[in-house]
## 1
Amino acid sequence: MKTKLFFLFMIITILSSEILSQNKIVTIDQRLSTNQQVGTLKKWEGSSWSNPFSPGTQFPFPLYSNQVILGDQAIYSNQKYNNWNSDFSNVKNHRSFNITPTTDLLLSNFIATNTGITIRTSLEGTSATGGVVEFRDPWFIDFQDAQFGNQLSIEKTIS
């Protein structure tokens, strides 16, 4: 009985290690709303961002690994980064993705920027205007992120 259990344990251990050591080919892409590929992307390599690579590049990632990818922060054809994989619930640019057997594509989506926007302040109940307004743009971070080697990440305070 002990021999059978040991043998079963060994088979499960070998199969588990084979499954966990497999790689999944994943395409990392970036496109304008017109479906045109643009810009460059980067991936986190443990202590720094990789050299930029072109949209459509494929990587053999280990199954069940987490991969952090950064979309381009530049504006192309009046469009900028907006989301990954059409997930509007989290618009942060550098995103961690769990690579599973169904992960085939990581897609950075760009959408049109808006121009001519004005933010005005006024004190309720008075005619006073002016002052300083600050807000954080979740698409661009300009602080040093300790999780990513104190390198600049992607959020910006706009005044």
## 2
Amino acid sequence: MPTTSGSLLLTQKSFDAADEVRRFEKGTVEVVNVADHSIARATFLPGWRWSEHVRPIAQTELCEVEHLGYVASGRMTVRMNDGSEAEFKAGDVMAVKPHHDAWVTGSEPCVVIDFAGAATYAKK
């Protein structure tokens, strides 16, 4: 709920009461809208892969969303369309440009807080 103090606008929200929840096979994206920003908590289960589980929603060859995020738990590998690849693990900060595929690495769910791609990710 917004609270105004002088010229400062202070807003507090929780992913536990997300403004929007997007579900797809092996994943969930919870979105909160704060001021002019959308922030997501994305949970990807083991076996999740963008090209298998989100491509049918996005209807693009690769993910066309830019991500700026923090990996809260688990591991994820991202491969760019030029073939470059990186694995992100809990505690890592990630910046990923559009034109990529991604998948969960290992047997633990991967949770990512995304500060850039929430407005359009996995949205029909």
## 3
Amino acid sequence: MQKKPTAKQRRVWRTRAQLRKGQNGRVRLSVHRTGMHIYAQIIDDEKGLTLAAASTIDKDLRGKLKKTADSDAATAVGKLVGERAVKAGVKEVCFDRGGFAYHGRVKALADGAREAGLSF
């Protein structure tokens, strides 16, 4: 017997379906947020590869951040994943907020990625 999907799972499915419609061969910037950390990945869905990734757990950011669960940390993660993506040859991405609302830390990460040179 299958369990009924949670509201969050339905939001994830809905946003992922909308991304597939408008993706046009672009890679996906996927965001995951927890109470303590924030994670970002550049994923090529056609090849099934992660091209770049960054999080507040990264050694590059660990010493620089005062807190790992605030907007400043999310902006730093966005800049780092953006720099790594540009280094990997990626300029345009689709933003996958992963069912999280586009405000606060998720928005800060997106703004940081835009500052680093990604367009979406």
## 4
Amino acid sequence: MRILVVHNPDAGHDQLSRSVLSGELQRAGHLVTWFDPREGSLDEALRAAADTVVVAGGDGSVGAVGRALVGRRLPIAILPAGTANNLAAALGATRENLIPRLAAGRVVAFDVGVIDGSAGRRFFLEGVGRGPFADTVALFERLRHRRKTLGRDDELERDRQAMRESVLSSGACECRIDFDGEEVIGEFVMVEITNAGVIGPNLLLSPGAVPFDGLLDVFLVRAAEREALVEMIGRKTNAPPAPPLPVRRARAVRFQAPPGQRLHIDGELLVHEDPLDLRIGLEPGALRFYVPADLPWPAEGMPA
């Protein structure tokens, strides 16, 4: 099999040896091409002949490759090397099972979020929203040249602490949200429209969310619910669930808010100066990922 390895050396904490990984793939019978996004065009690299893309990086790297491959049916195998690795966890992808995953050849369909409207047309794999997570992304964008090197767990805890502080300081915003024709208007501290139910530093917003059901999970937090959100952020992903906060499911969402909103789209920051009017939906099964043979997931092309 012809494999293109997209490796982000700046991701996360794991030092990945090009020679070691290439050797493992070659011994398994694969032809390997290596690409470093710092050294050229990702879109151009993905147009080269390949049967599979291995993404060695974190959620940002997987998102960049995924957005470039929407609808192309070129399968992706994740080698998690980031900090949160939310997408790898959802897909059962580990460093140790990369070669067995490729050998088993089990590929599943993965929905991709689509945004149209005042922000233009954009894709997302994890989620889009305004509030504490977008504020935290903005904070670390400003401080990225001054950030100290931390271990993975310490970095996740630092990001969660920054989110907790942002929850207490962020102003609520009057938003209008339409869920498949049902309208909700209110003052919300946080609005998150997710595909897989997990964002940022392993923050589980919707335990029942799955990225293959054709549904968006929308997480809403009103001003009076700040303390419940702080408690929720303080819990680990595998801890007992925090007190429930509103989650709606819909095939299509319209999200409207006043000008000057700070948004995140996956882990990227967007400051929207005009009145916000987003129409958000999904392209079911627009991506394909390698998963372990025993992962509970519908067969490719057959979303639940």
